[in-house]
Each structure stands twice: as structure tokens, then as C-alpha cells.
Design a protein that fits this description.
Layout: E1 6-8, E2 17-23, H1 29-41, E3 48-54, H2 59-72, E4 76-79, H3 88-96, E5 101-104, E6 118-122, H4 124-138, E7 144-148, H5 154-167, E8 172-177, H6 182-195, E9 201-204, H7 207-219, E10 229-234, H8 237-244, E11 250-253, H9 259-270, E12 278-281, E13 285-287, H10 292-296
Parallel strand pairs: 2-3, 2-4, 4-5, 5-6, 6-12, 7-8, 7-9, 9-10, 10-11
Antiparallel strand pairs: 1-3, 11-13
The structure holds beta-D-fucofuranose (GYE).
Beta-D-fucofuranose binds next to helix 1 and strand 10.
Main location: other
Subcellular location: Cell envelope
Pfam families: Peripla_BP_4
């Protein structure tokens, strides 16, 4: 059915920890790097029998994968929820099956008590705040169009909250979602250029949508980075190259490479050891003074 499902198994009957990992999709450069990191760390050599399922950005696929993991009797479930809500039932089923959950990247909003043992991800709200502070300082009169990520996802909700609180709602001329993909970001930007001709700055919730926006801006005969400034989140190599080329103005990093931290959490959780309720992956930020060496040294 086109899903990227794979089982990296050692021999069954081994002492390996059986892990079901439900990844939300393959929508962006960030996600691809995150998946590579997860697969590089959760290996048989590292004591893990991994079943990895890509939900293609559809919550129903993800719920199905989680139910399959329960049926398979995995030892630990790890998952990155595409949106925050709608998980109550399946999380309760996981809890009833007494399978510990390691929540990865995005967050959940649920009525289920103690739905996961530990969460590892970035501080999305801080990322939005950092982006907003750059805008406030460098383009205080900007007329801002906000290119939102997947609506209802932790990364969209929190980046928007952090950003809007700093720049002030009155400076935002419009918002639309590009679902964290380059193609949808481009389409949303084409429509926005018609709807908000006075816009001077785009805040894109990820690099891929910002890269789509560049195409739309250039097609409209304007200069990205000058006529319309672009601020994004992620810091994938293409995004940083656009920054160096003067088409992006500021990039707040969101580091996707934390497979080893997930591995460590899974091992501890499986052994019944204490783990922190949350682990925040540390980010930095870049402006146009970024060097080519930094970009070339980027792993993703
Ligand atoms: O920023 C974006 C991806 O959840 C942090 O999801 C992640 C976001 C990331 O599609 O590129």
C-alpha cells in the first residue's frame, strides 16, 4: 500500500527490545533526517527489534499502526503524533495493554492520565519566540504573513503562540497552512501574494514551506529576502543554503538528530528505570552571516 514499513530484525527469540515506532510522515527535510536518525539508532546491534511505520501525515494511519503494535505485543511504543488531539481512545488501549510510550517530537493533548513515560523533543514555543524577536528587532514595521504548519500539530500551535506573542497580532496581515510541505507551502504562498499584496515578511513554520514560498515569490516577480523577507524554523541544509544566498533572512534551528536519546530512553523505560518526564533537544539560530563551512558540515 505504499507505506514505508520495515522491520529491522535480529533473530526472533533474541533478548532484543521489541519497539513499534509510528512516524507521522515524510513531509519535510526535517522529518527525513529524524527518520534516518531513529533508524540509525534503533538497530539490532543496539538491542532493538524495530517495526517502523510511516503514517503519511494521516492520523487514522497512525492510530491503526498503534493498534497493530498492541496486537503484536511490542515491549515499547514510540510515536510522533501528527496532531495534538484525537488520541484518547488509542492511548487508553495502549495503557490497558500496559505498554510504555516514549513520545517523540510532537506533543499530545489528551484526557488520558499519564499517557506517556517520557517525551523527547524541541521547545516549539521558544522557537517561535526566537523568530519573533528577530522580526521585532530587524523588521519592526513588517507586514507579516504566517505560513502555518499542519493545523493542530504541536509544532504549529506552539510556534505560532510564541511568535505572535512577540510580534503582536496587529502586525500579522494573514495566515494559511502549508502543511509543512514544500508544494503546499508554495500553493499557500501563491494565494497569499494575491490576498495580501502589502505583505513584507513571511514567517514559515518550517524550511520546506519557506522554500516553496521562494518559488512563489520569484514567480510573482519579487525578490525573496528583499521585497519579502523570510524567517523559518528547522535549519536543514537547503534552508541554510537559502539563508546564505540571501533568500531567507533568519532561520531558527530545530534539531532532528536525537535517535540516540530515543534509544537511551527506550532502554531505560524497558528496564523500569527512572527517566525524566521530558527531555528538550537544544536548538540554535542562524542569520545571513552563516558560513559555507557550517552549511557543508551539516548532517541533514
Ligand atoms: O519543524 C517540520 C516537520 O515536528 C518539529 O515537523 C517537527 C516539525 C518540523 O514537518 O519540518
Amino acid at each position: 500500500d505504499g507505506d514505508d514499513n520495515s522491520t529491522d530484525g535480529g533473530d526472533s527469540g533474541s533478548e532484543n527490545i521489541k519497539v513499534g515506532f509510528s512516524q507521522l510522515g515524510a513531509e519535510s527535510g526535517w522529518r527525513t533526517a529524524n527518520t534516518e536518525s531513529v533508524k540509525a539508532s534503533l538497530t539490532a546491534e543496539n538491542g532493538i527489534d524495530l517495526t517502523f511505520v510511516d503514517a503519511q501525515q494521516k492520523q487514522e494511519n497512525q492510530i491503526k499502526a498503534l493498534r497493530d503494535f498492541i496486537d503484536q505485543g511490542v515491549d515499547v511504543i514510540a510515536f510522533s503524533p501528527v496532531v495534538e488531539t484525537g488520541w484518547d481512545e488509542v492511548l487508553q488501549e495502549i495503557k490497558d495493554a500496559e505498554i510504555p510510550v516514549v513520545l517523540v517530537d510532537r506533543t499530545v493533548d489528551t484526557t488520558v492520565e499519564d499517557p506517556y513515560v517520557t517525551w523527547i523533543g524541541a521547545d516549539f514555543k521558544q522557537e517561535g519566540t526566537t523568530a519573533g524577536e528577530w522580526v521585532k528587532e530587524n523588521a519592526p514595521d513588517a507586514k507579516i504573513f504566517e505560513l502555518q504548519g499542519t493545523l493542530g500539530s504541536g509544532a504549529q500551535v506552539d510556534r505560532e503562540e510564541g511568535f505572535d506573542a512577540v510580534v503582536g497580532a496587529e502586525n500579522i496581515v494573514g495566515k494559511a497552512s502549508g502543511n509543512f510541505t514544500r508544494a503546499e507551502g508554495k500553493a499557500a504562498m501563491e494565494a497569499a501574494l494575491q490576498a495580501y499584496p502589502d505583505m513584507t515578511l513571511v514567517f514559515a513554520h518550517n524550511d520546506d514551506m519557506g522554500l516553496g514560498a521562494i518559488e512563489a515569490i520569484e514567480a510573482a516577480g519579487k525578490v525573496p529576502g528583499k521585497d519579502i523577507q523570510i524567517v523559518t524554523v528547522d535549519g536543514v541544509r537547503d534552508g541554510l543554503q537559502a539563508l546564505k544566498d540571501g533568500k531567507f533572512n533568519y532561520v531558527v534551528e530545530c534539531n532532528p538528530v536525537f535517535g540516540d536519546q530515543i534509544l537511551d530512553a527506550i532502554k531505560k523505560v524497558d528496564a523500569g528505570e527512572d527517566v525524566p518526564k521530558e527531555t528538550i533537544v537544544v536548538d540554535q539560530a542562524f542569520d545571513q552571516t552563516i558560513t559555507q563551512e557550517t552549511i557543508d558540515g551539516r548532517k541533514y
